[in-house]
Design a protein that fits this description.
metal-binding; 462 residues; globular; 20 helices
Amino acid sequence: MDFLHTQLNNIQRHLAFVAVDPIDWKFYVQSFSWAVTLFESYLLIRQYPLYSKKEPPAALAKHFDAGVFEKSQNYGKDKAKFAFFSGIFKQLLDSLLLHYGFYAWSWTAAGKLITKAGYGPEYEILQSIAFVFILFILSSLPTLPLQAYGTFVLEEKHGFNKTTPRIFVTDILKGWGIAFVLGAPFLAAFLYIFQWAGDRFVPWLMAFMISFQLIMVILYPTVIQPLFNKLSPLPEGDLRNRIENLAGKLKFPLKHLYEIDGSKRSSHSNAYFFGLPWSKHIVIFDTLIQQSKPEEVEAVLAHELGHWYYLHPTKMLAISQFHIFTILALFPAFLHAPPLLRSFDFPKAVAAKPPTLVAFLLFQMILTPIETVVSTAMNAVSRKFEWEADRFALELHEMVKEDSMKDMGERLSKALIQLHVKNLSTVWVDWMYSAYHHSHPTLTERLKALESYKSTKEKKAL
């Protein structure tokens, strides 16, 4: 532990200038956040002409009739327009909040709020919680019209929306309620660790955040998810038998198999699994069951089980923890930096002893360009894992010695095509746009890879 703290102290010595140099951090954040937004707008401009193509890629031509392909192109075009406008709008909003000192005002407002409740500025944790929720609520309100438009205009126009105005409003209120019920104690514990551990907070905070993530793995499906959707045991039948047989042969620790009423809000479809290493739960959207044959749903789950088999969730967790560790290792230099807060319009009295949460929030803003690069790199890792999971499904019959699964690759291909057709997903994708935004390879890339895997195996067998 002493070695770790020594190395962390070395990092802080290299960043000591942050605490004394009068850097215009606000200008830095404004410049780079606009640069990221403009780059994302440029990617949309690169992608947009592809929605004018009249025919799908040759590999998909026989799977799309002209009407469906035209609908998918129109859907992609409308989503791109909306993404372009909403991206600029949100950036403009964030820029105005920064320019007019909204964060400093929110901290002052939080102080006045707890003072009325009988608490003084010495209650930093309490003021920090009030500060976060003032920020959260007031910055969320201007974007509600965008959410409503996306749901009731964009998704409605293309036949996907199933959300009623009542559900829309109750979902927002439930989300805010959950954010307060879970967020307040999380923030309190998060900030208490800083107070208790001092500048040696990094390992303790890492342990806390990992523990919190494990707790959420248990709480989300049992407490949070049921507030929004109904999870019912998957009925007896061909699909259930296929999944239980597949899980048994792979020794997948399946505890529960659920069907979720995703159609309550949208006709989009999906499937996923969650849980602790020794107890897993599979959830299948009712829309996927309605839109696909049991053997195709089985192929989709074979792909998902490939992620489990190759420990992809665990690997992604390890990468994310290293990422968090790197952020926390850099943070102490910004935690004790009055010039940082002064740059964002905080009063001298507050900046002289920077509140931990305020410093951390501003530090996160400064990391914006770095986080953009990290996100793109994480997408590249995720796509690699997706190809591995596809190959797992193709080779599954050899692993479980089940001849009836020899066609799993073909079934997965059909399922992927079916999902893209039903969801009107874009099939023409600019490479740069995909690299930045997509955690999955494009449909054409996945089909070509599956065909390549199959051809390679056939050649080896000769």
